[in-house]
Specification:
By secondary structure, the chain is of the alpha/beta class. The chain has two domains: about 220 residues, Vaccinia Virus protein VP39 (Rossmann fold); about 100 residues, no CATH class. Strand 4, helix 5 and strand 5 form a beta-alpha-beta unit. Helix 5 runs parallel beside helix 7 and helix 8 packs antiparallel against helix 10. It is globular, with a radius of gyration of 24 Å. About 5% of the residues have low confidence.
């Protein structure tokens, strides 16, 4: 989880550059402070964050955390022994390990990053804790949660905002055993905790895993943001951003709110059938029901269009791709097509190699379509690799097929 969050914030820093402001991080249920120290593996905590607040209800754990940060010499970390539901940021963060109880607090100050590592399952009134986190998080902030869980796939019926359900189902025996096991330590594994988290925030990443070193305990990693999309323009609405993305998906002209009336006046008396993407239709339904948008809308790069991963036509492939690379020579395609900057290309994804070759000729847009979601997953991974990796790392993954540090 920490690595995923660090990658998100590194990307933001590179993107904003001159407008970069150091973020404020609140670690809820941080205990002994190990989580914050572990972040130093990915980011320089003392110089990267404006201030870090560890919030925990246990005085003994908070004391251990204070000793940890004193040993590390980090002056921008404060340990707060308080109920997470009542925590508010101080009006002006200090550069020292402040006495939180004697400073003034602000109802409007917001955190840029909130984390909960194996703490949400230990909070009895988790609804209030999640609501409090949603109020504390800034409009463009990020929340990361890692915790244990058990859940049946039946619970997820008709939800299109969970970011996928791969590996999420835990069978009846596992659900009964792990609930009974963790009940002894007053740890709640019911699926409602994760469900409410996904309802209150937009899902950027949702991954379900098993810790086989400890008997296969189910756990999840959630990276999210506010439900209302925060764009680059001043005060954009989610509806406006959805409209803009839909225009790109369908190759339709985008009517911005400022020019909308002028454009409409020109087309009075002319009936034009609107072409809407399935992603747009799903987004409108979710917005009208006060639900988060599908996960694809919250990504940094809108490469992927939302699809219903539960449909039989997609699940028939068993989450496996068929083609790892494309056999056809794309040079022949370009010789015949003579691709230019005005062209819009519609192509079968397959392994995506031809798609990537087309892009070097700078067409206006390329639409890659495949019934097998895994083929689109593979292309998305390749595009992400080109965006984030050096040539050597990219070649190890897709050329040699193995990278010793892949999970890092």
């Amino acid at each position: 989880m920490l690595g995923l969050l660090a990658a998100q914030w590194k990307y933001r820093k590179e993107k904003t550059q001159t407008h970069w402001q150091k973020p404020i991080w609140v670690d809820i249920g941080g205990g002994t402070g190990y989580n914050i120290e572990a972040m130093a593996t990915f980011l320089p905590v003392e110089s990267f964050f404006a201030h870090v607040y560890l919030v925990d209800l246990s005085p003994s754990l908070c004391e251990i955390a204070r000793q940890r940060f004193t040993r590390l010499g980090w002056k921008n970390v404060s340990v707060v022994c308080q109920d997470a539901r009542e925590f508010r940021l101080p009006s002006s963060p200090s550069g020292e390990l402040v006495n939180y109880d004697v400073v003034s607090h602000s109802e409007t100050a917001k955190a840029d990053l909130i984390t909960m590592s194996y703490s949400l399952s230990m909070i009895p009134d988790y609804y209030s804790a999640v609501d409090s986190s949603a109020s504390l998080l800034s409009p463009s902030g990020t929340i990361g949660v890692c915790d244990f869980y058990v859940q049946s796939i039946v619970d997820l019926t008709a939800r299109n905002y969970t970011g996928g359900v791969f590996n999420r189902h835990v069978n009846w025996v596992g659900r009964a055993f792990w609930r009974a096991w963790f009940d002894a330590d007053r740890v709640g594994l019911e699926g409602a905790r994760r469900d409410y988290l996904e309802y209150r925030f937009g899902t950027v990443i949702s991954a379900s895993e098993r810790n086989y070193l400890l008997g296969g305990i189910p756990y999840y990693i959630f990276v999210g943001c506010q439900k209302e999309i925060c764009g680059n323009q001043p005060h954009p609405s989610s509806k406006e951003i959805v409209e803009k993305l839909d225009a790109a998906y369908t190759e339709s002209p985008y009517l911005s709110p400022t020019n909308h009336r002028q454009e409409v006046s020109k087309t009075v008396g002319r009936q034009v059938a609107e072409i809407r993407s399935k992603a747009y239709e799903s987004a409108v339904i979710n917005l009208s029901a006060n639900l988060p948008l599908p996960s694809s809308f919250y990504q940094n790069h809108h490469w992927r269009i939302y699809y219903n991963d539960m449909l039989t036509k997609h699940t028939q492939f068993g989450n496996e791709y068929i083609y790892a690379f494309t056999w056809e020579d794309p040079r022949v395609d370009n010789r015949l097509l003579n691709i230019s900057s005005d062209d819009v290309i519609l192509a079968i994804t397959s392994a995506g190699d031809n798609i990537l070759d087309y892009l070097q000729y700078n067409p206006r847009r390329v639409h890659a379509v495949d019934l097998n979601p895994a083929q689109n997953h593979l292309l998305e991974l390749k595009v992400a690799g080109f965006t984030a990796l050096c040539y050597r790392d990219f070649w190890k993954i897709f050329g040699e097929g193995k990278h010793s540090n892949f999970r890092e």
